[in-house]
Design a protein that fits this description.
- The chain folds into two domains: 53 residues, Arc Repressor Mutant, subunit A (Orthogonal Bundle), CATH 1.10.10; 174 residues, Tetracycline Repressor, domain 2, CATH 1.10.357.
- The protein is globular.
- With 240 residues, it is mainly alpha-helical.
- It is built from twelve helices and no strands.
- Helix 2 packs across helix 3, helix 4 crosses helix 7 and helix 5 packs across helix 6.
Length: 240
Protein backbone atom coordinates (compact mmCIF):
# COMPACT_ATOMS: atom_id res chain seq x y z
CA UNK A 1 0.00 0.00 0.00
CA UNK A 2 1.36 3.42 -0.99
CA UNK A 3 0.46 5.97 1.69
CA UNK A 4 -1.09 9.32 0.80
CA UNK A 5 -0.18 12.66 2.39
CA UNK A 6 -2.29 13.88 5.34
CA UNK A 7 -5.01 16.33 4.18
CA UNK A 8 -4.31 19.95 5.21
CA UNK A 9 -6.31 21.57 8.01
CA UNK A 10 -8.92 24.24 7.23
CA UNK A 11 -7.43 27.68 6.48
CA UNK A 12 -8.47 31.06 7.81
CA UNK A 13 -9.74 33.71 5.37
CA UNK A 14 -6.37 35.49 5.49
CA UNK A 15 -4.51 32.26 4.79
CA UNK A 16 -6.89 31.42 1.95
CA UNK A 17 -6.14 34.77 0.32
CA UNK A 18 -2.44 34.14 0.75
CA UNK A 19 -2.78 30.72 -0.87
CA UNK A 20 -4.76 32.23 -3.74
CA UNK A 21 -2.01 34.75 -4.39
CA UNK A 22 0.63 32.04 -4.25
CA UNK A 23 -1.42 29.96 -6.68
CA UNK A 24 -1.73 32.94 -9.04
CA UNK A 25 2.03 33.50 -8.98
CA UNK A 26 2.69 29.83 -9.65
CA UNK A 27 0.16 29.74 -12.49
CA UNK A 28 1.85 32.71 -14.12
CA UNK A 29 5.23 31.02 -13.71
CA UNK A 30 3.91 27.84 -15.33
CA UNK A 31 2.67 29.84 -18.30
CA UNK A 32 6.13 31.33 -18.68
CA UNK A 33 7.67 27.90 -18.27
CA UNK A 34 5.46 26.52 -21.03
CA UNK A 35 6.33 29.35 -23.39
CA UNK A 36 10.07 29.66 -22.82
CA UNK A 37 11.32 26.96 -20.44
CA UNK A 38 12.88 27.56 -17.00
CA UNK A 39 15.00 30.44 -18.30
CA UNK A 40 11.81 32.28 -19.24
CA UNK A 41 10.54 32.52 -15.66
CA UNK A 42 10.78 36.18 -14.62
CA UNK A 43 9.67 37.59 -11.29
CA UNK A 44 9.25 41.06 -12.81
CA UNK A 45 7.10 39.72 -15.65
CA UNK A 46 4.93 37.83 -13.17
CA UNK A 47 4.46 41.04 -11.15
CA UNK A 48 3.37 42.91 -14.29
CA UNK A 49 0.97 40.16 -15.35
CA UNK A 50 -0.69 40.02 -11.93
CA UNK A 51 -0.64 43.80 -11.44
CA UNK A 52 1.53 43.43 -8.36
CA UNK A 53 4.69 45.18 -7.30
CA UNK A 54 7.92 43.20 -7.64
CA UNK A 55 8.41 43.45 -3.87
CA UNK A 56 4.98 41.87 -3.33
CA UNK A 57 5.93 38.88 -5.46
CA UNK A 58 9.22 38.59 -3.55
CA UNK A 59 7.26 38.57 -0.30
CA UNK A 60 5.87 35.16 -1.30
CA UNK A 61 8.97 33.88 -3.10
CA UNK A 62 12.32 35.45 -2.12
CA UNK A 63 13.77 34.76 -5.55
CA UNK A 64 13.40 32.97 -8.84
CA UNK A 65 15.02 29.79 -7.54
CA UNK A 66 12.57 29.61 -4.64
CA UNK A 67 9.71 29.81 -7.14
CA UNK A 68 11.25 27.08 -9.31
CA UNK A 69 11.68 24.94 -6.19
CA UNK A 70 7.98 25.39 -5.46
CA UNK A 71 7.03 24.39 -9.01
CA UNK A 72 9.26 21.33 -8.69
CA UNK A 73 7.53 20.26 -5.48
CA UNK A 74 4.10 20.83 -7.04
CA UNK A 75 5.04 18.86 -10.15
CA UNK A 76 6.24 15.82 -8.23
CA UNK A 77 3.24 16.00 -5.89
CA UNK A 78 0.78 16.07 -8.80
CA UNK A 79 2.53 13.20 -10.57
CA UNK A 80 2.70 11.16 -7.36
CA UNK A 81 -1.05 11.59 -6.80
CA UNK A 82 -1.78 10.30 -10.31
CA UNK A 83 0.50 7.28 -9.81
CA UNK A 84 -0.93 6.44 -6.39
CA UNK A 85 -4.46 6.59 -7.80
CA UNK A 86 -3.58 4.28 -10.69
CA UNK A 87 -1.72 1.95 -8.33
CA UNK A 88 -4.86 1.61 -6.23
CA UNK A 89 -7.17 1.25 -9.25
CA UNK A 90 -5.10 -1.51 -10.80
CA UNK A 91 -4.66 -3.70 -7.73
CA UNK A 92 -6.63 -6.56 -9.28
CA UNK A 93 -4.19 -6.85 -12.19
CA UNK A 94 -1.09 -9.03 -12.31
CA UNK A 95 2.17 -7.30 -11.23
CA UNK A 96 3.36 -6.85 -14.82
CA UNK A 97 -0.03 -5.53 -15.95
CA UNK A 98 -0.14 -3.20 -12.98
CA UNK A 99 3.32 -1.86 -13.83
CA UNK A 100 2.17 -1.16 -17.39
CA UNK A 101 -0.94 0.64 -16.09
CA UNK A 102 1.12 2.86 -13.76
CA UNK A 103 3.72 3.49 -16.48
CA UNK A 104 0.95 4.59 -18.84
CA UNK A 105 -0.40 6.95 -16.17
CA UNK A 106 3.10 8.37 -15.70
CA UNK A 107 3.44 9.03 -19.45
CA UNK A 108 -0.07 10.47 -19.71
CA UNK A 109 0.69 13.03 -17.01
CA UNK A 110 3.94 13.96 -18.75
CA UNK A 111 2.16 14.44 -22.08
CA UNK A 112 -0.45 16.67 -20.42
CA UNK A 113 2.23 18.68 -18.58
CA UNK A 114 5.37 18.51 -20.74
CA UNK A 115 6.94 21.72 -19.45
CA UNK A 116 6.49 20.73 -15.82
CA UNK A 117 7.79 17.22 -16.47
CA UNK A 118 10.95 18.47 -18.14
CA UNK A 119 11.42 20.92 -15.28
CA UNK A 120 11.18 18.40 -12.45
CA UNK A 121 13.39 15.85 -14.22
CA UNK A 122 15.72 18.35 -15.88
CA UNK A 123 18.84 20.06 -14.56
CA UNK A 124 16.87 22.74 -12.73
CA UNK A 125 14.70 20.22 -10.90
CA UNK A 126 17.80 18.22 -10.03
CA UNK A 127 19.41 21.28 -8.48
CA UNK A 128 16.25 21.87 -6.46
CA UNK A 129 16.32 18.34 -5.10
CA UNK A 130 19.96 18.68 -4.02
CA UNK A 131 19.31 21.77 -1.90
CA UNK A 132 15.63 21.51 -1.02
CA UNK A 133 14.51 18.66 1.20
CA UNK A 134 10.86 19.32 0.38
CA UNK A 135 11.62 18.76 -3.31
CA UNK A 136 13.53 15.59 -2.49
CA UNK A 137 10.62 14.28 -0.41
CA UNK A 138 8.19 15.13 -3.21
CA UNK A 139 10.25 13.12 -5.69
CA UNK A 140 10.32 10.22 -3.23
CA UNK A 141 6.52 10.10 -3.31
CA UNK A 142 6.79 9.34 -7.04
CA UNK A 143 9.56 6.77 -6.65
CA UNK A 144 7.74 5.09 -3.76
CA UNK A 145 5.07 3.85 -6.17
CA UNK A 146 7.74 2.17 -8.30
CA UNK A 147 9.20 0.47 -5.23
CA UNK A 148 5.72 -0.71 -4.24
CA UNK A 149 5.27 -2.23 -7.70
CA UNK A 150 8.66 -3.91 -7.53
CA UNK A 151 7.83 -5.26 -4.07
CA UNK A 152 4.72 -6.92 -5.54
CA UNK A 153 6.74 -8.40 -8.41
CA UNK A 154 9.34 -9.83 -6.01
CA UNK A 155 6.60 -11.29 -3.79
CA UNK A 156 5.08 -13.02 -6.83
CA UNK A 157 8.46 -14.39 -7.89
CA UNK A 158 8.31 -12.49 -11.18
CA UNK A 159 11.77 -10.90 -10.91
CA UNK A 160 14.92 -12.98 -11.27
CA UNK A 161 16.73 -11.11 -8.51
CA UNK A 162 19.44 -13.77 -8.21
CA UNK A 163 20.39 -13.44 -11.89
CA UNK A 164 20.43 -9.65 -11.69
CA UNK A 165 22.49 -9.68 -8.50
CA UNK A 166 25.02 -12.05 -10.06
CA UNK A 167 25.79 -9.39 -12.67
CA UNK A 168 26.37 -6.58 -10.17
CA UNK A 169 30.10 -5.85 -9.61
CA UNK A 170 31.27 -6.18 -6.01
CA UNK A 171 31.98 -2.47 -5.58
CA UNK A 172 28.57 -1.49 -6.90
CA UNK A 173 26.93 -4.09 -4.67
CA UNK A 174 28.43 -2.32 -1.66
CA UNK A 175 26.87 0.89 -2.90
CA UNK A 176 23.48 -0.80 -3.26
CA UNK A 177 23.85 -1.97 0.34
CA UNK A 178 24.63 1.56 1.49
CA UNK A 179 21.62 2.86 -0.42
CA UNK A 180 19.36 0.24 1.15
CA UNK A 181 20.36 1.07 4.71
CA UNK A 182 20.41 4.86 4.37
CA UNK A 183 17.20 5.38 2.38
CA UNK A 184 13.75 5.00 3.88
CA UNK A 185 11.30 2.37 2.70
CA UNK A 186 13.59 0.05 0.71
CA UNK A 187 15.28 -1.99 3.42
CA UNK A 188 13.35 -5.14 2.48
CA UNK A 189 14.37 -5.12 -1.18
CA UNK A 190 17.41 -7.19 -2.25
CA UNK A 191 20.10 -5.81 -4.55
CA UNK A 192 18.50 -7.44 -7.58
CA UNK A 193 15.19 -5.72 -6.90
CA UNK A 194 16.82 -2.33 -6.36
CA UNK A 195 18.73 -2.72 -9.62
CA UNK A 196 15.51 -3.76 -11.37
CA UNK A 197 13.84 -0.59 -10.08
CA UNK A 198 16.58 1.50 -11.64
CA UNK A 199 16.30 -0.39 -14.94
CA UNK A 200 12.54 0.18 -15.06
CA UNK A 201 12.71 3.82 -14.00
CA UNK A 202 15.47 4.61 -16.49
CA UNK A 203 13.54 3.05 -19.36
CA UNK A 204 10.29 4.72 -18.31
CA UNK A 205 11.81 8.17 -17.95
CA UNK A 206 14.02 7.80 -21.01
CA UNK A 207 11.13 6.79 -23.25
CA UNK A 208 9.04 9.74 -22.07
CA UNK A 209 11.81 12.33 -22.42
CA UNK A 210 12.69 11.15 -25.93
CA UNK A 211 9.04 11.58 -26.89
CA UNK A 212 8.67 15.00 -25.25
CA UNK A 213 11.89 16.25 -26.82
CA UNK A 214 10.80 15.11 -30.28
CA UNK A 215 13.61 12.59 -30.69
CA UNK A 216 11.45 9.60 -31.61
CA UNK A 217 11.76 8.83 -35.35
CA UNK A 218 8.72 10.37 -37.09
CA UNK A 219 8.09 7.11 -38.93
CA UNK A 220 7.13 5.55 -35.58
CA UNK A 221 3.82 7.36 -35.42
CA UNK A 222 2.03 4.97 -33.06
CA UNK A 223 3.62 6.30 -29.91
CA UNK A 224 1.22 4.46 -27.60
CA UNK A 225 2.18 1.07 -29.06
CA UNK A 226 5.88 1.99 -29.04
CA UNK A 227 5.73 2.98 -25.36
CA UNK A 228 3.91 -0.21 -24.40
CA UNK A 229 6.52 -2.25 -26.29
CA UNK A 230 9.38 -0.60 -24.42
CA UNK A 231 7.75 -1.13 -21.03
CA UNK A 232 6.83 -4.75 -21.83
CA UNK A 233 10.36 -5.50 -23.04
CA UNK A 234 11.83 -4.03 -19.86
CA UNK A 235 9.68 -6.15 -17.57
CA UNK A 236 10.14 -9.33 -19.63
CA UNK A 237 13.92 -8.93 -19.43
CA UNK A 238 13.68 -9.01 -15.65
CA UNK A 239 11.47 -12.08 -15.38
CA UNK A 240 12.61 -15.55 -14.49
Amino acid sequence: MVSSPTPPASLSRRDRRKQETISDIKAAAVRQLTEAGPAGISMRAIARELDMTASAVHYYFPGRHALIDALTVDGFAALAEVLRSEHERSQELSPSERWLAVARAHRAWALRHPAEYLLIYGHTGGAARRVNQQAARAMWEVVAVLFALMRDCVAQGDIDTARIEAGIPAGLREQFSTWRYTADGIGDLPDGALAACLFCYSRLHGAIVLELAGHVPPQLADRDALFDLQIAHTTEALHR
